[in-house]
Amino acid sequence: MRLLHTSDWHLGRSFHRVGLLDAQAAFLDHLVATVREREVDAVLVAGDVYDRAVPPLPAVELFDAALHRLAEAGVPTVMISGNHDSARRLGVGAGLIDRAGIHLRTDPAGVGTPVVLADAHGDVALYGLPYLEPALVRDRFGVQKAGHEAVLTAAMDRVRADLAARPDGTRSVVLAHAFVAGGQASDSERDITVGGVAAVPAGVFDGVDYVALGHLHGSQTLTPRVRYSGSPLAYSFSEADHRKTMWLIELGADGTVDTAERVDCPVPRPLARIRGRLDDLLADPGLARHEESWVEATLTDPVRPAEPMARLAARFPHTLNLVFDPERAHDDPDVSYATRLRDRSDRQIAEDFVAHVRGGAGPDGAERAVLHGAFDDVRVDTAEREREVGR
Q1: CA distances, 213 to each of 138, 218, 367 (Å)
Q2: Degrees, nearest 5: CA angle 153-258-166
Q3: pLDDT tens digits, residue range 239-256?
Q4: Is domain 2-264 annotated with CATH 3.30.1120.10?
Q5: Where are the domains of the chain?
């Protein structure tokens, strides 16, 4: 069976205030064309269809058109909600849409009920695990600890129980939206850390033939059977080196992944990160290749130059982001606050602040638990408010 695995469309999202709706429409054109040209048997969309719980109307219209085109192509599509989606809003009409071959899986209660497709070698059971916010689904799954590993394990236990009751030789595919250990994050994924832990081990998904992951925006292979498709477009400059693709998976008669091919997505405009003193950037002939790119420029001038954005735009007209990182000695007390915080999580920043105000003594275990709990409460409160808005 030939599967096309994609995720993280984030319909309605912009890139540094540049609208991406046309680029997203071009990607969906490419998706439908690939489905037809490569004779795909099923499309897998592993969450974050929209960028926010209440997407703008043009994004909804784009999504609606894509569903109609996939249905007209006669190719089954299995789609789950991600942490950016409103599960209830995305799942509206799922029962009716299901009859058209578009299978929306947004309700955690349905994780053990697969979409069953068949080919010449027998059945393939496709299980959709929507994003599972631990604090909101813990009671439903009967787990004691509100963590990602606990709730995903409980969900996979239901998958494995259903699969065990099916005829021998039934192949299995799971769609999930999660941060799996070994994956490389970028700046554009929303933090889903719970209790200081974001990642779950890949072993949680043992027992199935292919795992189509969403959430991380870079295409990645964790094991031959566990993969991230990544987002079809770049949504932050941290993705400048990403090759944006979908996975075309050939699932063999015995459930092995016979082939896994990366299918390139259209690139609306390349990204470039350039760094140096302003005059050097404007004069460097080696940067000519970036003159039509979306550019993030980091200026290292010791003194901030006059009108830097206007001067950069004269050579790089698509400059979207400007960062100042003046050249200073590492121990210079005037090293910028942004530089000191670079690559540090919110929890680490909070712990550093405690150490700063106490003269170097960081939080102990109990205090660290209180800090982590406060961050978790904020995230859960945000998720609950988005869920209410999505109703």
Answers
A1: 21, 11, 34
A2: 45
A3: 999 999 999 999 999 999
A4: no
A5: 2-264, 269-327, 342-391
